[in-house]
Amino acid sequence: MANLQIRLNDDLKTQADMLFASLGLDTSTAVRMFLTIAVENNGIPFEIRHQAMPENLIKAVYETRNRVNLNGPFDTAEKAVAAMLED
Asked: What does the pLDDT read at residue 87?
């Protein structure tokens, strides 16, 4: 039998342990279940995708990449901060 070691955040480990315990599992069993289903499905058994970006962020990225509605350059940091605080 093989061993699998992974490094993860302490909080994530604690939360996962609590979740799986509430389902009557230990974390090792849950990981074995995930790996078994992944092999059976020949891939990750759930959808992996980017979270949708808010529309205003999409617009800001587009404008930045296309150099639209940009302010500056500014002579001083104070002028740059003042421009950011304008509505």
From this structure: 64
Structural domain count of the chain: 2
Bond into 45 cis (ω within 30):
no
Whether pLDDT at 63 is above 90 = no
* CB 47, CB 53: distance < 8 Å: no
Q: Which residues contact 68 (CB under 8 A, 6 or more apart)?
A: 62
Instruction: Please enumerate in sequence order all residues whose Cβ is within 8 A of that of 83, keeping only pairs 6 or more positions apart, or say none.
Output: 71, 72, 74
Query: Domain check: are 39 and 67 in the same one?
Result: no
Contact 54, 48 (CB under 8 A): no
Domain range for 71: 55-85
Helix (H, G, I), strand (E, B) or coil at 79: helix
Q: pTM for the whole thing?
A: 0.57
In the numeric block, the tokens 């979270």 are attached to: 51
Q: Are 45 and 72 within one domain?
A: no
